[in-house]
């Protein structure tokens, strides 16, 4: 019996030697990421430009800590002490005109930092949170506290309140008591002498206060809330925005695993189409002591109806003024001008407009219109943001626009009402910033290749660009305050980010300062995926990452990975934020699978037309790109058309469901993770961009939501979801599960993760989920 077992063991080992094996395993890949080593992030300089700060974790602690490298000794990496952290100057704040001092807020208190002396002193501790500090003169500091503007005179040590915004209504203080309460008060006053005296004294004090402020204007917010305060350069104007809190129903998510032992409800979000907050912009004219609302009625096209309304001829559409949101207001140096970016809340328009500070009227400089939705690098979103400001001459506004199909940098001469495009081409510009002397631009762009990012310098009025980085991949540059050096977080497709130092010169050499890979991580030879293009059915050419196995282990099966977020780029030449998936793809390739990772329609990095290719039909071109990718693999790499699987999370999970329901002849198996199953149940900010609102454009939602196509399921489907997901709710897959049950579908399963949200945090959950994915592929397409 023993001899027989030995013979069987030898035979089994001999047979296994012909099968694909890997030094990787799901458990190894999905363990705490600290096993990979430590990699720098959140890089910042000190004000003297001789120390680089960054988050790092060489000691393998629970979380990263702050570290630093001095330019005097770049070989030494030092952990920053708690004492130094407490006194470290904030990276945010406002500089004086000579750039010798900085105002900043820390823990709600106001500080001034002397850059030359390297000295900090506390200016104000009011017991109330201070925000938005600003130099008016070298000794006068403006700031916001309790929703009002104050000026502090450092020479005199005095604080002056400049505005008077109050919550509630002017009618509130005059509100009458009920008849019962009035009677009780009168009885109390007649019975108790002390109560009567207190009331008389209180009324006398109030009368005196009214006399002191009889000439002061009070702006009552009523039911609105004020936010986003912008102080003008002279301190003579304050702009602020208001909104009325949303009246729509907020959703909740049940949390079953917690210390209390009871099911607790987590607050989540509203759903798309719920009433959005109306936003208004106001100007507080300090010298006139009055407030006026900015009037948007003059904006060109403000009442235009979107084209999709033509699909509903039986509905009566009213051409009315659309709701808008506003960016920060940007003031020229002496308040001669102000500019603001205004965005229609239906996402179809963005206006760059001059703001008349004396009247609140607008003069439009540039209307950016898109029948899909306005977006792109430097464009901003419903929540604000975007590139906007003034050149040093106070007559040129700068901003970004996708007018040519790619986001580029523009100037507008407000005196001549003339626009000038500074950059052009089939690439995108990211994060432009003016040099300290205001004579040059620094920015990142994808000009070299859509999958690379490089840093450039260009004259302020445009002209020849100087490329300042050269390493092939992603160069995330943090420029030193004196602009002499660049701290670069650089990564390539198969190497995580490391910190480099380079002089701000084109031909200078970059010096690597960190080397954080662990021995365990670097022991494996991580693949550099091929970056390829293939032709889609409509002639477009998506980029994709391709992982090919050795011929000796090739099982002629393929897995297509669908990245999440929709508007995200993953087929690039740098380290992916999907690093677990990248490692999983290496494991799959070791096991004989060919893996394709496509930047499908809707992905970032390829301009306006690519971004909006999914408008009103998610699951259209973004899905057909996956199908075309599968056909490309079959035609070029001998992939068996019956052995193709697909998987992805979030948006990738959504596409996986659409693939399994609508393309059963292409995909035999799929794993849909944290998936949207019905877009009418997702959030407003993301969904309304692409599909409008469900009660206004139901056609778009019905053809874009997997739950409507569940009857098409024929292959093997794994659905995985975290129960405490406050982004894409667990309810989504519960509703889909019921639909699949009612349709009597087979070969599908649901894996739930009780403690996980949208982004998993526990290695055990990651491991369980990806073991299931691997098992799905191994038993369906891999055999």
UniProtKB/TrEMBL annotation:
GO biological process: proteolysis
PANTHER family: DIPEPTIDYL PEPTIDASE 9 (PTHR11731:SF193), PROTEASE FAMILY S9B,C DIPEPTIDYL-PEPTIDASE IV-RELATED (PTHR11731)
Stretch forming the signal peptide: 1-20
Domain Peptidase S9 prolyl oligopeptidase catalytic residues, every copy: 586-782
Sequence segments annotated as region (Disordered): 163-182
Stated name of the protein: Dipeptidyl aminopeptidase/acylaminoacyl peptidase
Keywords (A to Z) from UniProt: Aminopeptidase, Hydrolase, Protease, Signal
Source species: Psychroflexus sediminis
Lineage, top ranks: Bacteria, Pseudomonadati, Bacteroidota, Flavobacteriia, Flavobacteriales
Basic and acidic residues composition bias: residue spans: 170-182
GO molecular function, one term: serine-type peptidase activity
Stretches assigned to the Dipeptidylpeptidase IV N-terminal domain: 232-496
Superkingdom of origin organism: Bacteria
This protein's record includes keyword Translocase: no
């Amino acid at each position: 019996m023993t001899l027989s077992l030995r013979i069987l063991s030898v035979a089994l080992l001999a047979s296994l030697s012909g099968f694909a094996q890997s030094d990787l395993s799901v458990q190894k890949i999905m363990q705490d990421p600290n096993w990979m080593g430590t990699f720098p992030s959140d890089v910042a300089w000190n004000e003297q430009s001789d120390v680089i700060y960054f988050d790092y974790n060489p000691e393998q602690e629970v979380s990263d800590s702050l570290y630093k490298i001095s330019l005097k000794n770049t070989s030494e990496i030092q952990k920053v002490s708690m004492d130094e952290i407490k006194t470290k100057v904030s990276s945010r704040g406002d500089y004086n005109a000579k750039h010798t001092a900085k105002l900043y807020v820390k823990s709600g208190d106001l500080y001034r930092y002397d850059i030359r002396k390297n000295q900090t002193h506390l200016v104000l501790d009011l017991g109330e949170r201070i925000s938005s500090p600003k130099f008016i003169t070298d000794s006068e500091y403006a700031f916001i506290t309790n929703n009002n503007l104050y000026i502090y005179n450092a020479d005199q040590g005095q604080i002056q309140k400049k505005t008077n915004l109050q919550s509630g209504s002017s009618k509130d203080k005059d509100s009458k008591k009920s008849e019962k309460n009035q009677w009780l008060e009168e009885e109390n006053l007649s019975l108790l002498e002390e109560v009567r005296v207190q009331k008389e004294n209180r009324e006398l004090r109030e009368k005196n206060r009214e006399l002191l402020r009889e000439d002061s204007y009070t702006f009552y917010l009523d039911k609105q809330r004020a936010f986003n305060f912008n102080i003008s350069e002279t301190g003579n104007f304050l702009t602020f925005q208001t909104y009325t809190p949303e009246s729509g129903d907020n959703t909740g998510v049940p949390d079953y695993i917690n210390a209390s032992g009871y099911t607790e409800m987590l607050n989540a979000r509203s759903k798309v189409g719920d009433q959005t907050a109306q936003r208004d912009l106001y100007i507080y004219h300090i010298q006139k002591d009055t407030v006026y609302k900015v009037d948007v009625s003059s904006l060109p096209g403000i009442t235009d109806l979107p084209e999709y309304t033509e699909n509903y001829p039986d509905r009566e559409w009213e051409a009315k003024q659309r709701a808008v949101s506003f960016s920060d207001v940007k003031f020229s140096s002496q308040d001669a001008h102000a500019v603001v970016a205004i965005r229609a809340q239906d996402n179809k328009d963005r206006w760059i407009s001059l703001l008349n500070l004396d009247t609140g009227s607008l003069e439009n400089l540039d209307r950016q219109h898109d029948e899909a939705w306005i977006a792109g690098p430097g464009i901003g979103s419903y929540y604000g943001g975007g590139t906007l400001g003034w050149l040093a001459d106070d007559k040129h506004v700068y901003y970004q626009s996708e007018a040519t199909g790619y986001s580029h940098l523009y100037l507008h001469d407000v005196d001549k009402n003339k626009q000038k495009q500074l950059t052009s081409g089939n690439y995108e510009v990211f994060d432009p910033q003016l040099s300290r002397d205001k004579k040059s631009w620094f920015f990142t762009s994808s000009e070299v290749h859509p999958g690379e990012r490089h840093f450039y310098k260009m004259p302020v009025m445009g002209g020849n660009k100087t490329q300042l980085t050269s390493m092939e991949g992603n160069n995330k540059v943090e420029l030193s305050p004196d602009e002499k050096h660049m701290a670069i977080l650089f990564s390539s497709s198969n190497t995580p980010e490391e910190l480099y130092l380079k002089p701000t010169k084109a031909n200078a050499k970059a010096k690597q300062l960190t080397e954080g890979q662990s021995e365990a991580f670097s022991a494996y030879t991580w693949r550099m995926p091929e970056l390829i293009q293939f032709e889609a059915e409509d002639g477009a050419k998506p980029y994709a990452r391709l992982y090919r196995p050795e011929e000796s282990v090739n099982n002629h099966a393929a897995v297509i990975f669908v990245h999440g977020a929709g508007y995200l780029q993953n087929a690039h030449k740098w380290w992916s934020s999907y690093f677990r998936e990248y490692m999983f793809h290496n494991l799959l390739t070791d096991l004989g699978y060919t893996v394709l990772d496509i930047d499908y329609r809707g992905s970032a990095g390829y301009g306006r037309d690519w971004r909006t290719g999914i408008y009103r039909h998610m699951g259209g071109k973004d899905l057909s790109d996956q199908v075309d990718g599968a056909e490309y693999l079959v035609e070029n790499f001998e992939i068996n058309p019956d052995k193709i699987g697909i998987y992805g999370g979030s948006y990738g999970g959504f596409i996986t469901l659409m693939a399994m329901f609508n393309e059963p002849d292409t995909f035999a198996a799929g794993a849909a993770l944290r998936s949207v199953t019905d877009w009418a149940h997702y959030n407003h900010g993301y969904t309304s961009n692409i599909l409008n609102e469900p009660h206004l454009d139901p056609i778009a939602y019905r053809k874009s939501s997997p739950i409507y196509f569940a009857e098409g399921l024929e292959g093997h489907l794994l659905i995985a979801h975290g129960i405490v997901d406050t982004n894409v709710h667990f309810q989504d897959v519960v509703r889909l599960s019921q639909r699949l049950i009612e349709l009597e579908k087979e070969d599908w399963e649901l894996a739930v993760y009780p403690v996980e949200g949208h982004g998993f945090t526990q290695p055990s959950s990651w491991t369980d989920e990806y073991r299931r994915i691997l098992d799905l592929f191994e038993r369906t397409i891999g055999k």
